Every structure is written in C-alpha cells, then in structure tokens.
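the two lines:
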Amino acid sequence: MDFSLTDEQQLIVKTTREFVENELYPHEKEVEDSGVLRPQLLASIRAKAMAAGLYAANMPTEVGGGGLDTVTWVLYEKELGRANYALHYCGVGRPSNILMACKGEQRERYLLPAVRGERTDCLALSEPGAGSDLRSMKTSAVRAGDDFVINGTKHFISHADHADFVILLAATSTDTSGKTPRKIMTAFLIDMGHPGFQVLPGYRNVSHRGYNNCILQFNDCRVPASAVLGEVGQGFEVANTWLGATRLQVAACCLGRADRALELAKRWAVDRVQFGQSIGKFQGIGFKLADMAVELRAAELLVLEAAWKKDQGTATDSDMAIAKLKATETLAMIADEALQIHGGMGLMSDLPLERIWRDARIERIWDGTSEIQRHIISRALLRPLGG
Amino acid sequence: MKTILVGVKRVPDYNVRMRLKPDGGLATEGVKLSLNPFDEIALEEALRLKEKGLADEVVAVTIAPADALAQLRTALAMGATRAIHIVHTGPVEPLDVARLLLAVIQREPPLLVLLGKQAVDEDQGQTGQMLAALWNRPQATYASSIAIDGEVAHVNREVDAGTEQLDVDLPAVFTTDLRLNTPRYIKLPDIMKAKQKPLQSLTPAELGVNLRQRLKTVAYEAPPARAKGRMVADAAELVSQLRQRGVIK
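prediction for all of em together
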C-alpha cells in the first residue's frame, strides 16, 4: 500500500496552500469583522483563482474544469478549507457537480459559464419543515401545460446572495404506496430574478461569517419544461448521483482547518512560557497535542480512503458518512482543545482560533448531521444481517 | 533558437530549521526539500522574458540525485519548456557546478543564463561568477531588474551603495536577487501538463566533466543561541542604550 503523494499532488497542494496564504488569509479579518464579502473583493479573488487554474478544479476537463481525481480534489479542498469559508468557497468557486446532468442548451446556459466563473450556482434543498427528511418537502412544481408552476419556501440556502441561478429540488408528485407518503422530486434550473422567485436574507448565525444563508420564496413561479435538470421525477436520483461528493468536500475542508488549529496550538505551546518553561513541556498540554495529532491523522486517512474508493468506483454511502463524521467531529475536538491550550487568548477574535472554533460547529450539522451519518453507517452494518 | 538556461537546485525548504546530528553532521532525513527560492526567481524572470517574445524556450537544469525529479517537475509546471537533469549523488562544489553548466552551454549555446544569486542551503554564492569566467562572457550578479534590448541587456544590480546600472553584452550570466520579481502561482492545468514535457537525463561523464573535491567540510556548528532581549521604554532609551554599547556613535 502506497501512502505517498505523487509529485503532481504535492505541487497542487503547494500551489493551493500558497494561494490560500497569500490571497485569502490577508482578507479574513475584514470578512470576519464586517460579516460581508465585498463584491469587488470577491471579483478580485475570483480573477486570481481563475488565473491560477484553481477555479472549478473539481469539474472534468472536458467542460473546462481542472479534472482532479477525487483524492487530489480532496487534497485541494483541504488546503482551501484552511481559510474563511466565504473567501475560499465564493472566491475559488467549485460549481456543484450536479450541473454535469445538464443537457443540450442547459450546458451553454448553466454548466459552462459556471465552470468559467461567469455564473454562480446555488443549491436549494432544505426547507423549514424538511431538513434531513428531504422527502417531506412542501415546495411543489405543478404541471401547467408545457410549464411547471412552483410554490414554496426554501431556507438555509448558502451563498444564494452571490448566485446567478438556483438548482432547485421541488416535489412534482407524491408516492402514497408506502407507510408514509413520499414526495417524488424533480430538479430545476432557475435564474435569479425570474418572475415569482425571490431571494431574501437568511438568519444570522454562529459559523462562517460572510458566507450567508438565504431564504428562497417561490410564488406561482412559472418555468418551462426546459428548466428541468435530468428527468421529471428523478430529482432525488440526480442529487444522489452527483452530491455524494459534497460530504467529502465538507470533510476535507475540516481537515485543513483542524490542521491550522493544530499548527496554532503547537506554536503557542512552544512560545507560551509559564512557571519557567514552555507550556508544551507540561504533560497536560503535550498529551493534548499528541491526541489532536493522532485524531487528525486518523481522520485524514479515513477521508483519503473514501476518496480513493470513489476513484475506484467502490465507495459506499457508509464510506462517505464515516469520512464526514470523523472529520467534522475531529475538527470540533481539535478546535476546542487548541482554544483550551491558548487559555483566555484563544477566545479573542484577534486569533483565527476563535473563528475556527465557531466555524467548526456547523460542520457537524450541514450536509447531513452527525446523527444522520451514524444512521447511514449503522444501517450499512445491520442490513446485511437482516436488521 | 533563443534559449534561456536556468539553473535550479534542490535545497532544504527555507522554512525548515536545520538541526545538527550528534556526530556533527546536518540532519537531512525527512527534511522537506524545495526549489531554491532564488532559482524560482530566476525561472520566473526567464518565463517573463519568454512571454515578452524575447526568448523561444526556457530550459531548467539541475544537478541532483535521481530522486530529485519532483523539483524539476516544479520547474516544468511553472512553465519551463524542458528540463535537463544531471544525475549526481553527493555534494558538488560551486566550481564543478559551473563546469557542468559550461558543458551544457557548449552543447547548446543559450542567449542568457539565469541563476539564483546563491542557494539557501550553503549560501556559497559563487557559481554564477565562476561560470561567467569559464565561459568568458559578461556577468551581472544580484540583479533586481533585467531588460533586454537586442544584443544588450540593461541590468540593475543591488550593491551596498544602492543600485548599479549595467549594460551587458549578450550572451551573459545573470544572478537574481530577491527583489527581481515574485514567482507566479503554478497553475493547476500546468501541473497536469508538466508530465508530458521533455526531461533529459545526463551524467557528468556524458558531459565530459570529471568532478573533483577541492573543499573539505571540517565541521558544522549551530549558530549561538540568541541572548535574552530587554524591553525599552521608548526610542530615546533605545538610542542611548545602543550608544552605550557602542553599536552607534
């Protein structure tokens, strides 16, 4: 078993890290303090990311993307994940790969401009009454001649304020054959500003300052059949085919941030002197650092293994869930311990640690809560036994 | 074909704090290795000249063990047209580096040779000067700007007194200072393409150069630990303290 990175992978890590340190870190304070990612700043970072070929590196080369395999993409996400989320996710865009389901003129209108950084997508699944239980969604798309009429509310829709179009999942029918009715969903591509479609500011929250969630309202929003992404009634399948990788993305970003927190903690443990010695020499601190490093290594290996399996075509939902669960929980532990090692200073907004600690909280919730991940893992354990 | 030859050397990464082994040697195992930062600047300058249409190709050359391919790939990913790997294990003295580079030059005469002013591993800072002497061509060391105008290059050099301006007949050897440029980010697509670029392996024997050890490393010694500092109240106290200690008059 070969655990070493290829020369190419090492270079990609190096160039991504340099970009993050030189082009993103210097703007973190502004975005954290103001809670706003200024459009001019966004445009300038985006231009630099395009020039460095870092933009849309997740997308295949045949549509103009970087064409990274999953393992290399995870390494790239890990480096980007070190920085403020708004800066790296909006600035160094990674279009949703669900756009690969675009057909015909949808490619020219949505997919290719998204890869070129000319148009930005956002993804609308969650609703006030439908989070983990997506099949209970209320947003509906009803056939009206050749068109569909959409009604409903989506919330927690990330970066919809910077987006040019939305990839929407709406219910087009209901399957009543089972115990509980299940919505049959269809995916739609809808431009911002389309009549009957409105983006409203979302909720102020603890994590990822400057990276906003929004509320999307659809009131008799009429779209043509050509707005359907994939097939009618196949929305859940389209999402499942393409969105599995987003859990790896969350996991990889957590690894980067955890690594940054550990670096800060190590530095502090060496530099901070109390009772006549570096605090790292006290076992209470040194052993914490050792545990943090062990957990981080374990999480890294799980994420890389899941990525490698994805490249081999053998990854299961459970593999993705294991990677996401471990990486997000590890970030929470490392951020908390790094802050504890810093003592009072760790709570101050002058250090990135306070932010990393706040930002860690969302990771165990979005893209499937830790409980949902455990559900997926345990189901995979028990089902083969008839459980 | 107008070629710019750029020397690149693999060195311990400049962020690494080197440690001494108990036997007095340098601990190099597991140390992160990178391109010498001054060589990256040299390569960047060569690429900019090529992009301005002043050269047709940029050739990166290194003298290193067989496992140094990663650093040559870095050079190719940055944009070098092709690379030459002179395979040699063990230390090479500046004079031998210059002799090997001269042998490469004689095979395919370049318009310009760009080298880092020094490598951050041993800080010798001699290769460029020796190469110019052996090649019998002009040199401009510590360059902070380079402009090519036909057969002549206008070079600004950083010297103790300030900036010295030289007009240099080409071909010539230039060594790069820190302020010459800021190397680019390596573009992701270029990293993928680097694998396909030509990479030639040669041995010193194939170049007709017989390496000879003239220098002997007697010992390595760690720099003295920094003495404890003291906070001063204001600039006036700082000046008076410096005066008292004879640092300033």
